[in-house]
Amino acid sequence: MIVKKEIRHYDGEERVWTGKYRNVNNQPHWHTELELVVIDNGQATFNVENKLYELTEGQSILIPSSAIHQITSTEDSTLSFFIFQSKPIHDIVGNKRLCSPVLNGKYLFDEIYASISADLRSKSRLEALSANNRIERLMLDIFLKEETIESRSDTNYMQVRYKRLLEDIDENYGKYTIVDAARFSALSVSYFSKFFKQMAGMTFTQYLNLVRVEKAIELIKANEVSMTTVAISCGFGTIRNFNRVFKSTTGYSPRELPDTYSVLSLHPNFGVEDTFDPTSPQSKLVE
To answer: Second label for 144, Cα 20 to 30 Å away, from 80, 96, 176, 255?
Structure first.
């Protein structure tokens, strides 16, 4: 799975965002915040670090900071979201993490959601601090009720290194090789190949080709350079190799690519963009 990093901006001193989505579906992504999702009605499937969780009405899930995740819900579903910065929570709970992201305890999510949302709408500094305090108290309650374990620093280290590697590839994709990736990860090429496939769910070559095709699509849509220039600048070497990989990835030749084609069709993909929104246009923010 190749993913993008979502960067969230806050208006003032609040460190939490709330919202309700109907029919929410998004692409694989990650962010540094924690994400608490409650199923108000309907059903939703959560892919969290390549593990699937099927949730129905009344259930909830806490997605860890920096976890790669994706949500697919039914058309009749409504989901409540609490997305909030992880550092204040880490200061409270330390290295503890939940044994399972699916919550078993009973919590007053409706009341807490309404209170935090009212605080945020006020645009007052004191209410913003109140919203932060409410989510911290909720998290303290969750970590007291749910089964927890001490997090493994080596696992966190490898996840961080993996995501930094993806950023490095995204910046230097044109001339990047598996040797560069292995060196960046401080691993041998053979061990790196196994590590990357375990983390990404595909080989390094497959991943690199997806990134290069995404970059090629951006250049093609800009319509500022020739196809040969696109092929070379994106690291394909020859126009023949470019055409082959492009068509096997998108289903179209570079010259036949529809104007309406979206790089979202390539998912998973990766990058770090201030404007990135992982949620599909079919998802409706209703509150």
So the answer is: 80
Taking the CB of residue 168, how many other CB atoms lie within 10 A of it? 15
Alpha carbon of residue 273 to chain centroid:
12
Note whether 38 and 18 are within 8 A (CB).
no
Q: Which of 96 and 160 is assigned the larger pLDDT? A: 96
The token pair at 82 is: 């609490």
| Peptide bond just before 258 cis, omega within 30 deg | no
Q: How confident is the model at residue 155 (pLDDT cuts 50, 70, 90)?
A: low
Confidence (pTM): 0.64
- Look up tokens 């923010």; give the residue: 285
Q: Is pLDDT larger for residue 113 or for residue 276?
A: 113
Closest Cα partner for 69 from 278, 286, 284?
278
Name the residue with tokens 């994709």.
173
For the CA atoms of the chain, what is the radius of gyration?
21
Give the amino acid at 167: E
Which residues pair with residue 149 across a beta bridge?
97
Residue 51, beta-bridge partner list: 48
Whether omega for the bond prior to residue 268 falls within 30 degrees of 0, making it cis, is yes
* 42, 267, 51, 36 alpha-carbon torsion, rounded to 10°: -50
Token digits for 153? Answer: 């620093």
CA distance 271 to 68: 13
Query: Is pLDDT above 50 for 272?
Result: no
What is d(CA 198, CA 63) in angstroms, rounded to the nearest whole number?
Answer: 20
